[in-house]
Structures are given as structure tokens and as C-alpha cells.
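new request in #modeling-help
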Amino acid sequence: MSSKPKEDEAKKDPREAVDRSCCGPVLFLAFSAVAWLLVYSFFALLAGVKVHASGMMADSAWLAYGRIQPASLLALQFGFLVQLGLAVSAWILSHRGKTVLVDGGYLVFGGLLWNAGVTLGFIGILNGNSSGLEGLPMPGEVLPLLFFGFVLVGLSLVQTNNRRTDEEMSPAQWFLFAATLWLPWVLAGSYLLIHFFNAKGVVANIVDWWFIHNFVKVYLTFVGLGTLFHFLPAMTGRALAGRGFAQFGFWVLLLFGSMGGVGPGAPVPAWLSALSTVTAVFYFFGVIAVWVSLKRTINGVTAADSSDSLAYNLMRLAAVIFVTVSALNVFFAFPGPGSVAEFTIYGPAKELLFSLGFVGVTLIAALYHVFPRLAGIDFSPRMTRIQNAAIILGVLGATLPAALGGLMSGDAVLGSGFYFASVGQLLLFVGSLVLFVNLLGAVFFAMKNCGCLSSICCGIKKKEAGT
Amino acid sequence: MAAKKTNEEPETTQADVSGGPKPWVFVLMVLTLYWAINYLDGHSGGFNATVYTPHSDAAAVASLKVQKTPEEQAFESGARIYRGLCAACHQPNGLGNSNAGFPPLANSEWVLAPTPDRMIAIVLNGMQGPVEVSGQIYNKVAMPAQGVALSSEDIANVLSYIRRNGDWGDAHSLPLVTPEQVQAVRDSDAIVNRSAAWTADELKQQFPESQ
Amino acid sequence: MTIGLSFLCGLLASSVSYFMLGLWWPVALLVGGFAWLAFGLLDVKMNSTFTLLGGMLLIFCVSLSAMVLRANDQLSGLQFANTQDEEGTEFRYPVPLLGQARYGEKIYKASGCVACHTQQVTHESVELDVKAMAGEKNHAAAQEAVSRFYRSTGRKTSGGAALGLPVGEWETIETGLNPADASKARNFLAAAGASVDVQVRFRGEDLMQNEHSNPEGRGWGRRRSVAQDYLFAEPPMLGSVRIGPDLANVGARHTRDALMRILLNPRIIRKDSKMPQHRFLFEEADEGEQGRHIIQDGDKAYKPTADAEALVDYLLSLKGANYPLPEAPVNQPFTSSLPDPAPAPAEEAAKTTQPVEADK
């Protein structure tokens, strides 16, 4: 019933219809993602401060450092990155495929389930029910909820991609399609092995490392790259140079990114670490191929539309961060440098730089492009300027000193790195607060001014009236 | 501000300029594959579950378990038997308990005799009656026979421990008692034909050469 | 070529390298993956979702079986192993957590101690020292064996033991050897009829400190951690960051009282500690309450709750990385090299301590 009128609308004005189909679901996911970013940055700031003031809030078990730190990472990865990634994926897949978003309701319902899962996991960790693992710290019970939430969203995205107008698929579509399928597979596999089959001893950790590796090296990377592969050509008005490079990169990143992630000194048989080193080296071939393709596309051009230049510059920065972190990964995959960096805060700092500096910045930049087109209203430019400066300085400030300090001081990092990192986290908090307020305000004005959102509200009201 | 932005989407035509990695990239990858095989050869420990970094293979790990010398093996095994069987009466420090009637082993002239035959006989069949050790007479309790419970090797080891235990005194540095020595005593007529425990006089008579 | 056909090519390539060339399975897997990439994945048009889906599914299965299922095969069958403590008493390892320690593990997990503490000890290298002793009969053969060893490992044949191997005395052949060279030396010398003795020394900043062989040691264990150590951990909280010290054998390092104080306020023990206080595991002691469990922090007195007691029970039960296992031996000193190494110091110690006791 719902798809027929949409198709009719599509005949009238395809772009209008595509936008309208995306509007509600994408904004819902984007809004909850930004809310989780705010939660993340607040709790990360709190965790950082607890390192300086060891007696602060010592009476509260809920606010123990060991609880808020993994909880904040959960908010960042599953709350912010995955949700904003899904929102941007939905927008790209429908616009690239020139088709309406199929069953946007799944997106909203799946997003609700996903949010419920992340919330329960977040509270579960604070409550002391964490699983004790690092990649999947949330209580095992919420994983099925997350899985089904994601699958519902994924169903809509995969169907949208299948109904694309052009037969040809572009690299952006490959990467986003693969990412959308890959996370539920890995999530389900890890859940079954760890919690259902009760993996014994260190096998649970091996599965956990395998999940982390797949989540970062395949899922997050593919979401980030898919977004870059769509927007960098789109904003410059150029064609993507080197489809062959992208194809090479796609398969190499997938094949070698799906294996590895075991550190040099881990208490598991030596072949796991050795295999991880080898796959990390091959993975870098894919990174180079992707870089060549992107670099040739954007070489020497600026954004075609001046209003896009901000998003465009942010994405270029993100691409540079991606290549830099990947090069560091290859270097530290070898046992010699690897054992120097192992157990230092270099590791978490680098992960944060990758997930916020590359994936996060890419997605936020995409949001700058997407949001005005969906809501019909732009962000406040002054606040945008503030939040950009704060977020970028915050990401760099929270990661670079910590990473350097970690490398220089061996494992117990108790130096000035932590103080710098806290300044960075404070900036990050300010940035995400401004972004949240900005988004909230823009949505609020859009509701008042624009027909797009109010029509959805009216639509819901109509449905309610009907039932 | 409220003006809606246009949706200038890129036309996803064949615009994607084809062009991929040149053949030399694949040559480089094959070279890297060669490196990878060598690397795995050197660092993966033969994909064996019991090889951990930084060991190179299972043989290297096994070679780290240094074999102990026969003396040490005998001494350790003897110490274990002594703790289990003998220490209850003769005490872990070998000083015995004169009040309860347990004679000492440390610096005892019976233990430090040039040959271990008497000691072997005592362990095999037990001992009863008065015995003088280090100038004191012990006559309260009898020692039970251990010949059935212990193998010749066990007896050799525990006697080696008693006779070679440096912690008990400088004189305790006698040569190892071998299982063959024990077996020889065990097979001698004096033991084969006897089931009762020895007395001190009978022992001195039977094994005079020990004096 | 389609995904499926190229996958068959890859399968063929990996079977040939596994069964006919005798390569290890992951190497064969790598070769197969390459063939697959080269034949098919890089050549397909990538316009059909089925192409993508097929390739992804196959890669997923390869990844799952190569990384996870294979490791599970190897490690899920682990059982008790025999080991011995410092006094030579044999026991079955690991010891399951008993009583409150199991509950303490849950507290450890809930409080997120793993965010700052690892439970894994690493080691960097192993070095072996070889000594030998030759009798009169086999002296010449032993000396020949020594120079043969020096030649075959590219060492100078002029100095050291090659010059003279005193008859009937232990002589150092070489120090700091790797296991392969050491076993070569041992084989040469044993074949020549000499007695050989080997000392094993592990290096690594996590291991026990030793002025001679491991000056930078932090004393976090006698050997590296292996999978056997975590047989009963639910789950093993290995950790990845050391903001605080490693806890793999914290039970062997600290007493109950010290751990309680560190939990309540680490700055009682160390002024510059960054560890957050865990006052939520304690309650304020009543006025006038006495006992060892009362801890004075500033002007307030605290006593541990049942949670704190259980957590400390768990921490005290952590004694991994201590006992030798076949896959992870510990340092082994020269056994027969020095004539009577043990009695002399023991006696001296006895002589020096006895008068002191008598004075008291």
C-alpha cells in the first residue's frame, strides 16, 4: 500500500520523491547518532578527569572509570558511528540509485530497536553487567536486539540498492552494500561463538579480537570509504577516476581486513600473531589502491558548489587521516615496533583517531551536505564554524599527545599526555554539544518552516486517525 | 536560509573512468606473497598450538626443558619419598625425635656407613629392639618393613637422599645408591629367607663388612 | 570469470599447494586467495549484487575458519596440565577459582578493571648458556666438537673454550645462544662423550628482575602467559592497555592488606598513583571498631564490604605466569656445573642466623 503512491510520486519528480522518502528515517537516525556523540564525549571527558582526580566520585560504583570508559566507547561506536553510517548509507544508496528508499519504516523501526539495544548495553555496562570483553563489552543479552535492529535497517537498504535505476553499481554502492551485510554477519558469528557456544578460555578473546578487527577494518572502513567514493566525485562534479583501483581495493580490503587483529605478545599460539602481521601488510595494498583512486579524482579541484566546500575539505582531511593511520598500522603490525606500542595508550588513541578522525569526520561532513537538502534548512553557520574547529582540534588533541606519549613512555603512561588528552576531550565535548544544539535547532526551525518534516508529522497523524 | 537547496546529484554514468593497477602491482604482490610465506615459516611456529612467540618451532620449545642429571633426578625423587614415608618419624630435618623413640638419620653412624647394605636391609625388612645411634639408646618403637611397598629404585633414591643430603651435615656426601645395589641385597639369602624385622645385633652380624 | 568459477580456481591452487607442495594450510589459503583474487574478483563487472554477495560470503567463511574455528579447534580441547611450584611439589594446573574468588571475578569484570590492567605477561627472547666437561678419555673428541660448533655457527675458533678444555672441570662453551644453536652445541658435545649442561634464561621487561640476565624486569611473572593460564577464566580479561601494572600474578606479589589499601585509596601506598579510588567497595567503620580489617584513610576509618573481600580473594588467586608448563618453561639454572652449589650458602645462612636467634 505504501509503495504504490511513492512510485507515482517518483514519476512526477524523482528527486523530490527520493528526498521525501529519505527525510524522516535518515533524520531520525542522524539525530539519535548525534545524541550518542554527545553522550560519548561527555563520558569520555568524565573518564579522563577521573584519571587526574582519583578521589572524585569514588563512592559511586556506576561512575567507576572501568565502567564509564567502555560505556563511552560503546556510545561512540554503536551509538554514533553505526547509526550515522546507516543514515548516510540510506541517503547515498537511494540517491545514487535514483530510487525511493524502500520501506523507510523499517529504517525507523530498526533504528528504534538499535537505539534500545545500545541504551540497554550502555546502562548494562554502567550497572556492572559488562561481558568483560573489549570489543563487545555490552551484556550478551542485548546483542540479539542489536542484530535484529540492524537487520531491519539493512533489509531496507539492500532492497533500495536492488531497485536502483541504473544497472551499473558504482564503488560507493559496493562499499556501502558490503558494509551493510558484513556487520550483522560478524555480530551474529561473535554472539553465537562467545555467548551461545560458550567459547572456552582465550577462544572468547580470539573471537572478540576477530570482531574488533572486522568492525574497524571492514565495517567502519567501508562505510567511510563508501561515503568518500560517493561525495568526493559528487561534490567536485568529476567522474571517479580508476574504477579498477576501487575494485582492487574493495576485494583486497575485504579479504585481508577480515583476518587478523591479534597482537604480537598475545597469549595465543604464535601463528595467530604471525598471520595478523601478514594480512596487515596485504591490507595496505588495498589502502594504496583506494587512495590512488580518490586522489586522482580530486586532484587539483575544489567543490563545485561553494556551499559544499566545508564538507569537501572535511572529507579530504578524513581521507588523509585514513591513509596516515593505515600506514601506521602496517608499521606497528610487525613484532618489533608492535611490541613497543603494545599495551600503551598508543593503541586506543590510534583507534580513536581512526574512528572519529576518519569515519566520524567523513560522516559529519556528509551530514552537512545531506541535512540542508532533507530538512530544507541549513545549520547555523556560526555554530557550524565553532563545532568544526572544536571537533577537529578535539579529535587531534585527544589522540595525538596520547599516542606520542604512549610510544615514548612504554606502557604505563602517566605523563602530560593525559592532561593534553583531557583538553582534547573537553573540546570534543564542546564541539558535539554545539553540533547537537545546532541540529536540534535546525530540526526545530525546519518543522516550523518546511513542508518536508511537517508532512511526515501530518502523515503520522493521518495514520493514527485512520487506525 | 529556508531556500531549499537543489539536488544536483552526480550523474552516475559510465563516468567512472576505468583504470586499475598496472601489472607490476601484481608482481609486487606476488613478491610480497613470497615474503609472507617466508615470514610465516619463521614466525608461525609451524601453526602448532603449543608454540608461542617468540619461539620459532615446537622443537625449540622442547629443547628448553633441560634434562636433569641422574644425581638430581634421584635426589628429587628420593626427597619426595622421604617426605611421604619417612619424615613422619625421622622428621623432615632428619633429626628424629628422641623423646618418642625415633632415632636421627642426620650424622648417624648407621647412615654414614661406607656401604649402604645395612640401610637397605633395614628399609626392606624393618627394625626392632634397642639400637644405639650417636651415643643414645633407642628402644621404644619398631620400624615397619617397606620392602613390599617400595621398588628397588625407590629405595635406592630415598637412601641416596638420606646419604647425600648436604643440608644434614658435611659427612652426607656419599656416592649414589644404585638400584642394582638394592636388588643385590634384596636377592641375598639373608633377606629372601627372612620376614621378621632386624635387630641391631643381627644386622651387625649379617653385614659385618659395613663396619 | 565469475566469482564461483574463480573460487574453484583458488580452491584448486590452494589444494595443489597444500597436498602436492606440502605447504602449511594458511599459506595454501593465502595462495588460494591470491589465485581467486587474480582470476575472478578483480575481473568481474561488479554490477550484480549476487557477484558481491557471493564473493563476500566466501571471504567470510574463509576468515571465520582460518582465524576463529581453527583456533577453537586447537584451544578448546585444553585440559589440566601438570606443573610444580617453587618447592617442587607437583600439582594440576590451573587451579579452579574456589569460593569467593569466583564471585570476585565478577566484581573485577563489573568494575571494568580490564580498562587499565592487563592480565598477560610477555617475554621477548630466550638465551641459553652451554657448559661442558670432558674426561681424559674423550678430551680430544670434545675439543674437536667445540671447534666444530664454533665453525658451524660462524664464531671465532681461536679464543675461549677452543683453546683448552680442562680435563674434569666445567667450562663455559658459549653464552647467549638461541635454542637452535644451543641444541647443536649440545648434540655435538654429547656425541663426543662430554657432559653438557645448559642454562635457560628468559628476557623481557615483564619478567622477574635479574641483575645479570634481565636487569629491566618488572617482576610480573616467571614466564610468558599462555592459553593454559585462562582455562577457567570467564572470560579471560586479557586487557590491551597498561595504565596500571599487569595483574597476571598479582596474587604472588601482594598481601591482602596491601590490596585492600590500594583499592580504597592507592595513594596510601604510592603517592603518585593515578588509580581511581574504589570507595564504593568499602563502608565507614563504626566508632571504636577494632581489627585488622579497619583501614585508616585520612581521618576516616573504613572496612571492606563482602564485594571487596571477594575481589581481593580473586586477586590473590591470580598466580598465572608462575609455574612452568611444557609450552612455556621458566628460567633454568645450571644444574651440575658448580660443585655443590646449594650447601655452602645454606650453611652460611644457618650459621649467621643462629647466633642472631640466640641473642634474642
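bot summary: The radius of gyration of chain A is 22 Å.
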